[in-house]
Every structure is written in C-alpha cells, then in structure tokens.
C-alpha cells in the first residue's frame, strides 16, 4: 500500500521530494480499509440458538427451534436481510397447504419466527423485523377432557406394581410435568412434609405437594428398592436405570388401556389437578405457583377446561 502511494506521489511532485516523503510515510502503517463481511444465515442462526440456550431453553425446544428455522431458510433461499414480510407470509401459507397442518401448528411456527427476527432486530443485525405485521393465527380452542373420580380409581386399581402405583399417585397428587418427574431424585422427596423439590422449565426449582395416599405408596415402593440409583423412579430390570420420559408415558398409556380409560397420558393428570383446584376455589395465582407457570395466561387455560361447574351454575341460577 505504501509503495503504491509513493509511486503516485512521485508521479505528481517528481523524484526530487520522493525520498523525503518516503521517510515520512515509513513512520505510519497505511492499509486499505475493506467493508466487513456480513454474517451468513447459518452464522446468525447459530448465534440465535446460542442465545436461547443461555436463556435456559430445553434441548427439545432448541431442536424444534433449529429445525423450524433451518427449514425456513432452506425454503426461502434468501439472506436474512433480504427476507420480507411477504416472503414469510407466503412461507407460512404454503407450509400449511403442503403439509395440511392445523392453525395451532402454524401459530407455533409463527412464534418461533417472530422470536428469531425480533432477536436479530434487538442485536442490530437487521433494521426491522419482517414479522411485525404478521399477527397471531386464530385457533379453535379445544375443550380438553380431564380424568373423573371414577377414571382415577380404575387407573389406580390397574397399576399392578408398587412403582407404577406410586407413579400414578404422584402424578395425580402433584400435577408435575413428566419431564420433572423423571429428573426427581430420592433425596428431593420429603416424606414427613409430603413435599418435593422439582426442577421445572428454565432450570427453575419449585416445591410441590402430595397427599397422604401418595406418601404411603411412595414409602411402599421405596422399601422394595435394593439398587443404589439416586433416581426416584427406575426400571424393574437391572441395572435399574432412571426412567425416561418415553418410558413413563408408555407405562401410563398401558395402564389407561388396561383400565379402559381413554387417552391417558401424564399431562392429563396435570390438567385434572389444575382444573379441580380452580373449580374448588383455589386462587389462580396459587395454581400458577403450583404448576410452575411463568405466565398466568397459561394457567388461565385450565380455568376453561371443565364445564361441569358451568352446567351446575346454570341450573342453579337460571333453571
């Protein structure tokens, strides 16, 4: 760079001053500035995923984020800066038409795209998020059924082993997520206080509570344990590994099928507990705390599940 500049100056002023100018220029580092190379789509996606991982998102959520955004970027074949609102609208519309998915699925994809582009805007990678003008997708609110008292008794009678009965009672009494129950260790259970410390979403701990019946079945189950595994629920066969989410879901499903109760899964116990708590007058803020919801809106969904009280009130007040 310096040699090139000296040649140009010499041509202008002549060789008479060339040596003097050369001596002056030797004291400086003269380099040509080049524009920084903008990050690629892949680099921006990886930065976003790293940020969400630091925020405490679960591996399952991170995989959903990655797959959803990778599919978008592969389909649009545009750089992120070039992606427009119309591109995203067309993508969502074509995805729904091609795959035949529900509005709920499309809205879940929309939320991920909105999170991604909002993060890019906040981090100054783009000027304005193209998702701003794409609003929430209207969805039909499905009334999810809960387990009746009769259903619960059938399930309890069908759970043949001490372990399976303890699982059923713990789910029904605490309303924990299936991911929380598989991570539970024996030392997290306080039998005397009938409580446990579970690790919820976002690696946040909370205390949950269980009834006397659950305490009895936990004690019976733990007395049968001869292994050294610290996990609360383990497999029957050696080496007695900690149960996985899939295994507990399978156990509960089989119990439901054998007891002739339809669509039994771990989350149904959680929904049943929350609905009954609200029906019996537990303040919504306390139900939120019990379930470990960050937003009370999530808890409010359970308040609209059971129509029994509405029916009773209608007969009582209207006729």
TrEMBL record:
Keyword Cell cycle in annotation: yes
InterPro entries: CB, DNA_brk_join_enz, Integrase-like_cat_sf, Integrase_catalytic, Integrase_recombinase_N, Integrase_SAM-like_N, Tyrosine_recombinase_XerCD
Pfam family, one: Phage_integrase
Location in the cell: Cytoplasm
GO biological process, one term: DNA integration
Cell division among keywords: yes
GO cellular component, one term: cytoplasm
Residues annotated as domain Core-binding (CB): 39-121
SUPFAM superfamilies reported in the protein's UniProt record: DNA breaking-rejoining enzymes
This protein's UniProt keywords: Cell cycle, Cell division, Chromosome partition, Cytoplasm, DNA integration, DNA recombination, DNA-binding, Plasmid
The protein, known as: ORF-2
Species, as recorded: Latilactobacillus sakei
